[in-house]
Design goal:
Elements (H helix, E strand, L loop, with lengths): L2 H23 L7 E6 L2 H18 L8 E5 L8 H11 L5 E7 L5 H11 L4 E5 L5 H4 L5 E5 L4 H11 L4 E6 L7 H17 L2 E6 L8 H20 L3 E5 L2 H14 L15 H5 L10 H14 L7 E3 L3 H17 L8 H9 L7 E7 L6 E10 L1 E3 L3 E2 L9 H4 L8
Parallel strand pairs: 1-2, 1-3, 3-4, 4-5, 5-11, 6-7, 6-8
Antiparallel strand pairs: 9-12, 10-11, 12-13
Helix pairs in contact: 2-12, 3-4, 6-7, 8-9, 12-13
Length: 406
């Protein structure tokens, strides 16, 4: 072999080596796509972080991956057509196999209906649906939200485990006109009666009223200490509004009482502000976030008195719905099988148990086999998981109606 031919062979070998290395390092292109629509960071940061976590695992469509993430408008109530357009736009991708929406704000039902007409092959999954369950349930393949029904029993049971003899429910008329919130309130009352806990309703200002968020929070700061004096340090406090949660936690830590969990449980709701925590280094790392909160509560002698879900529900709704869609597409799960859904949600919440039930309309008694109410075990700082997700909730609580529907 002469020098020229030897160089040609060497060049060929080098080219083959570069090609092999390149192919080995390249990710295999996705076989199908899944669209996820969430609010913006301004509307719901945890939902967006969930989408980012799934992109990190499965890749972004623009880079040959599986996940395409879009957002709906901040003012979604007034811009439903924009929301609908975002949903429909995903159906124009021939590789799209599923569309997930969390939260499924107004416009989701109509967007899903239009996709169904265009592409009946696309799976449609909705998290925390704002629209009537009996309406969106007809067009979506799968709908889920946190279990506001059995929570009416589980929260009272948990409060009693923490030594509560009184349960103080803090809300206002606008929230008590919402069917889901009032239905839970009615279950709270019945559970209190059955479990031997005194029921108390305290009215606080609506953050959307003239006093605004600042005024509503100031009211809690001023009145929680008075309520602790009135009802005792064995009282358990619960509020229906996110804006009320931070001042309530702050004053329970300072003055006494217990707090089982927020209306939409998350370690990021109320705790960082109430405890003055900077969680920028722990962003998205829920075990680290929980550890930091637990250490601060211990330093304030508040261990064993406050709880939450150890993984943010909005984050879990995004990751769980996407994973459930993947499992169904790949033939590993059935869409409406409860255990299959719980398996998908449990993948991203190590150590936390999940439970669920199918939605039953409180007035008509209609059960929706594609609408699940899911919940995570309550974690009490200083105690650990208390087993609320393992409770067998008596059926009578699941049948209690709000009385609002005609």
């Amino acid at each position: 072999m002469n020098v020229r031919n030897g160089l040609k062979c060497l060049a060929l070998v080098l080219c083959l080596m570069v090609f092999c290395v390149t192919m080995a390092g390249a990710a295999e292109p996705a076989k199908y796509h899944i669209g996820i629509i969430t609010g913006t960071v301004a509307q719901g940061e945890d939902e967006v972080r969930g989408a980012e976590a799934m992109i990190a695992e499965y890749g972004d469509v623009k880079d040959g991956g599986m996940i395409q993430h879009l957002t709906y408008p901040n003012n979604f109530a007034a811009e439903q057509e924009t929301t609908i357009s975002q949903i429909v736009s995903l159906a124009t991708d021939p590789m799209m196999k599923a569309i997930v929406m969390n939260q499924a704000v107004p416009g989701a039902t109509e967007g899903f209906r239009r996709v169904r007409e265009m592409r009946p092959d696309i799976l449609l999954l909705a998290g925390v649906a704002h629209e009537d369950p009996l309406v969106i349930g007809k067009v979506a393949d799968f709908v889920m939200r946190n279990d506001f029904v059995s929570a009416g029993y589980r929260v009272i049971w948990a409060a009693k485990q923490l030594g509560a003899d009184t349960f103080v429910h803090v809300s206002f008329p606008r929230h008590m006109s919402v069917e889901t919130l009032t239905r839970r309130r009615m279950i709270f009352e019945q559970a209190c009666e059955d479990l031997g806990v005194k029921w108390v309703f305290e009215t606080a200002p609506d953050p959307l009223s003239d006093v605004g968020i600042v005024g509503a929070q100031q009211f809690l700061l001023e009145n929680v200490p008075k309520w602790v004096d009135k009802y005792g340090k064995n009282a358990s406090f619960y509020c229906t509004n996110d804006a009320h949660t931070e001042p309530l936690i702050r004053q329970v830590v300072e003055y006494g009482g217990t707090f089982v969990e927020a209306s939409l449980p998350s370690p990021l709701l109320g705790f960082p502000g109430a405890l003055g925590l900077d969680l920028s280094n722990e962003k998205g790392n829920f075990p680290a976030i929980m550890k930091k909160i637990e250490e601060v509560l211990e330093s304030k002698n508040a261990s064993g008195r406050l709880g939450t879900w150890s993984f943010s529900f909005p984050f879990c709704a995004t990751t769980g719905l996407i994973q459930h869609a993947i499992n169904v597409i790949e033939g590993e799960s059935k869409m409406t099988d409860m255990q299959d859904a719980l398996k998908a949600f449990g993948k991203y919440t190590p150590g936390a148990k999940w439970a669920g039930s199918y939605y039953v309309d409180g007035t008509t008694g209609v059960k929706l086999d594609n609408y699940m109410l899911l919940l995570q075990d309550t974690y009490v700082f200083g105690k650990g998981y208390i087993g609320s997700a393992l409770l067998d909730v008596p059926e009578k609580y699941l049948k209690i109606s709000s009385g609002l529907q005609k």
